[in-house]
């Protein structure tokens, strides 16, 4: 079982699970651990230690509040180790909390055919959580890109019901009836972040007419993007289609998560209130 914070980071990055890294960056007087000590906290686990006791308990509680906010963030908190924390060290610890939220939206890619195999590595390099679904084990490559969750399902549409709200669904299976079943399941949910399907305009129109016959209103049917991909990125080769689809996914998540949020950080001076950084090196205060 992983207990060291560095090993935990490697595992959590692969699974795209959010976490908070806590670092002791300044101490005064007697404290449980020295500057530089770290621990890592997830919603249900803690790895390594910053000394235990009520300080660690308070730090874990604060970290999990940051996880609930669901945003990348940094915060500096100062803890006097006295009566308030039930510790008699009498010192003072400054802790840096770095919250790494879950990577982007969940993307469920249906189909491990030529386009799916070209698309999966492109999506794996983006800030997304990728689940790759097919019912045919032989179609998956021997080596799956790092961070991709491969799922072999006899009924691929089951993955629709298990996906979190706001997920992106990319439908490109080997079977038109299966494509329709997946698309209808997504539209029936009503909470997808994006639905795209590979195919011709003729296929799109046929599916639209069938959905109309099943009572779906036009505003719901319009949520299905078929043919999938950006018209500005043409081409019929698998890689060309994959690049066009990846470009459309990028455009969508950039729209959902403004670039401002992706660039935001915290200036060091903003982390320190007046007089609170006296225990830090001089060159860290500027």
From TrEMBL:
Positions in coiled-coil regions: none
Every XdhC- CoxI domain range: 13-79
Domain XdhC Rossmann: 107-249
InterPro entries with a match to the protein in the record: MoCofactor_Util/Proc, NAD(P)-bd_dom_sf, Xanthine_DH_XdhC, XdhC_CoxI, XdhC_Rossmann_dom
Pfam families from the UniProt entry: XdhC_C, XdhC_CoxI
PANTHER family assigned: ALDEHYDE OXIDOREDUCTASE MOLYBDENUM COFACTOR ASSEMBLY PROTEIN, XANTHINE DEHYDROGENASE SUBUNIT A-RELATED
Name of this chain's protein: Xanthine dehydrogenase accessory protein XdhC
Species the sequence originates in: Pseudomonas denitrificans
